[in-house]
């Protein structure tokens, strides 16, 4: 077995047994080389592969040692790979919307009161109500809210999969902003719908919560006049979305309120 696969298997076992936690510092490259009985160069190469996979971060320590640290959010490393896949998909917007609906509605149907992150959801909603909130921050919070919703099912794999979609969701929701009639009206609607979804969860009505989140997701592109089935309509390319919708640009309320996507994932 390749050294990096041995290290990965070891990390999985240690995390499962509770001997390691995400974000924890690991032994130095020299110490790990001794543990796995390989050369220090082989261990350094293995750690570089794991860093490229988004599993560890490497820092330079004393005496030219390499200090590996487990990442806190390993699911985030899958985001760039998913965005590359979306870039080659014939219907990238349709695919991401359908995946959102599947994951979020399934999570809410399976939600349990003890798993609902109420403090996190309410904290996000409170932040989204700020009058001085810029467009980029609004959409960062928007995605965080929906990740928190998926946490309600208590399934770590579902949450990790949805977290990996974070940048793709951010890009397409940002791109839609330029096609809604009036952003202030849209943002008010989004906040109201978020409150309704959380209200349904608090009431224990999982079916209503799932229906509300489906309607919430689907209405976003309907309001913008964007057809998600149109070939090549993509979140990463608002010009492609522009071909699908001729709705007027919203009036800019400040410099933050622009529909430009982030420069990097």
Automatic annotation (TrEMBL):
Keywords assigned: DNA-binding, Transcription, Transcription regulation
Keyword Hydrolase on entry: no
Ranges for region Disordered: 224-265
Top-rank taxon, per record: Bacteria
Domain annotation HTH gntR-type: ranges: 1-69
Gene3D superfamilies xrefs: GntR ligand-binding domain-like, Winged helix-like DNA-binding domain superfamily/Winged helix DNA-binding domain
GO molecular function terms listed in the Swiss-Prot or TrEMBL record: DNA binding; DNA-binding transcription factor activity
Protein name: FadR family transcriptional regulator
Species: Kocuria rhizophila
């Amino acid at each position: 077995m390749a050294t990096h696969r041995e290290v990965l298997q070891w990390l999985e076992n240690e995390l499962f047994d509770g001997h390691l936690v995400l974000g924890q510092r690991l032994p130095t490259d020299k110490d790990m080389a001794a543990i796995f009985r390989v050369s220090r160069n082989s261990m350094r190469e293995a750690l570089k592969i794991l860093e490229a996979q988004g599993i560890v971060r490497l820092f330079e320590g004393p005496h030219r040692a390499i200090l590996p640290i487990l990442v806190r959010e390993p699911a985030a490393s899958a985001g760039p790979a998913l965005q590359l896949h979306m870039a080659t998909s014939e219907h990238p917007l349709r695919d991401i919307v359908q995946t959102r609906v599947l994951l979020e509605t399934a999570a809410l149907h399976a939600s349990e009161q003890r798993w609902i992150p109420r403090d996190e959801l309410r904290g996000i909603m409170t932040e989204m109500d700020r009058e001085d909130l810029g467009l980029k921050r609004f959409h960062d919070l928007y995605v965080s809210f929906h990740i928190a919703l998926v946490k309600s099912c208590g399934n770590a794999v579902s949450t990790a999969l949805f977290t990996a979609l974070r940048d793709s969701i951010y890009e397409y929701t940002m791109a839609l902003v330029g096609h809604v009639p009036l952003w202030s009206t849209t943002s008010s609607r989004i906040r109201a719908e978020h409150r309704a979804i959380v209200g349904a969860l608090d009431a224990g009505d999982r079916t209503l919560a799932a229906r509300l989140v489906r309607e919430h997701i689907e209405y976003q592109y309907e309001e913008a006049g964007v057809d998600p089935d149109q070939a090549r309509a993509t979140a990463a390319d608002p010009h492609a979305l522009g071909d699908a919708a001729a709705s007027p640009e919203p009036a800019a309320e400040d410099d933050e309120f622009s529909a430009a996507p982030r420069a990097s994932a």
